[in-house]
Amino acid sequence: MKTLADPANRLSHGLAAIRTRFQVPEGFSRAVLAAAEAAAARAPTGHIDRTDRHFVTLDPASATDLDQAFAVEAAGPDMLLHYAIADVAWFVDDGDPIDLEAWRRGTTFYLPDGKAGLYPPVLSEGAASLLPTGPRPAVIFTVRVTPDGAVHLDGAERAVIRSAAKLAYDSVRDTDLPPGFADLTARLQHAESRRGAARVDPPEQEVALRDDGSFALVFRPRLASEERNAALSLAANMAIADVLRAHQTGLFRVMAEPDDRAVARLRQTAVAFGLDWLPVATLAQFEATLDPGDPKQAAFMLAIRRAGQGASYQPFQPGIVPWHAAVAASYAHATAPLRRLADRYVIRATLAVANGQPVPEIVTAAFDKLPVVMARADAIGGQIDRAVIDLAEAVMLQGREGEVFAAIVTDADDRGARIQLCDLPIVTRLALRGAEPGDAVRVRLVSADPDRQRITFEPVV
Fold first, then answer.
1. Alpha-carbon distance 359 to 379, whole Å?
2. By Cβ atoms counted within 10 A, which residue in 63, 217, 325, 368 is the most buried?
3. What predicted TM-score, i.e. pTM, was given to this entire model?
4. Which GO terms fall under biological process for this protein (predicted)?
5. Helical pair 361-397 and 10-21, crossing angle rounded to 10 deg
């Protein structure tokens, strides 16, 4: 990691400006906080006691808003994933102040110096979070995983659980995890490969807060523990989607395949990068072979992400199969209700249909309204993320105007070229005509303006 030199504290000032620019909420109103305090004191009723099961959580070390805990059980040749999800709906009533504020926000917004939560901390980091500090109400989805990795929802129930351990991505050991975890995740990941799923994430450009209070601008590849944990969430969300589709209800996460023109451009990009993409291999098959630790392959993975049409939410529609191209299956969001508004309603619908009950009308009505709310929240979150990166890049480069940097072109279109600096984790655009992906270029820094979150380069001829 490279620590940012920020003696004037421009990053903190810039983050405050970004919060103002995007109207990131600061705290909660007194009415919301009072309602949350009252809700946090509720004792679970109608919840089955499952505190005898060995549940654990697996998250970033610093996380306190824990949506998911899991336990694993053998069932003959099958494996059972008992996936406990924070029972947010137990604490939040339809139309109460907490609910209304959550509809205004849509999601939790994350910035390097802190987050703006979807729910007040007394719930999201306390009574509703699946922390190992005592019993918690949860919704348990029991997902049956066959030897070939196929998934089926065996049941859903409200239960009280007790997490035995808060495990962290960067320090977890296999011996910390429930017996059977490795077998379970291997089945799920093999099934992804057979489906042709392209759920391969490139390294993320991010601003990280270091232990000494300084910031670093980094490319952070996903850890193997994150991928294995994501496989559990994916399995539950696929099984839930199948159940909801069968009952002609639900809200689904959908994403179209890159079109033929985009795939043709990606094939040219692969040639420019010197990557061996066989003509008979699909994009999904090729992406699954890529190594995010290799700079050119990581750049190509970023190009694939940009070539897609983006994901969105879609309520159930008769005769239409909701499809997520990266997952290569129908898929719902149900496993992060502390951070995403939509998940609370998908969970409520799944609880109903899994137990032979009608889906509440207020949930069905929400499915029609949520796509717009979630699209707005996702867009704001993406804009915040990009603004934070732009700010960090400007702070890192301020004072180096006139310096020449080596770079590689990762993408090019009629607007110019997108370049990756070779020695710094910085990606930017350049007005460069005739550039091709894979071209090595030299660029001069013209300006670095933290106040405007903008850096400008010019090509060195």
1. 29
2. 217
3. 0.88
4. mRNA catabolic process
5. 150
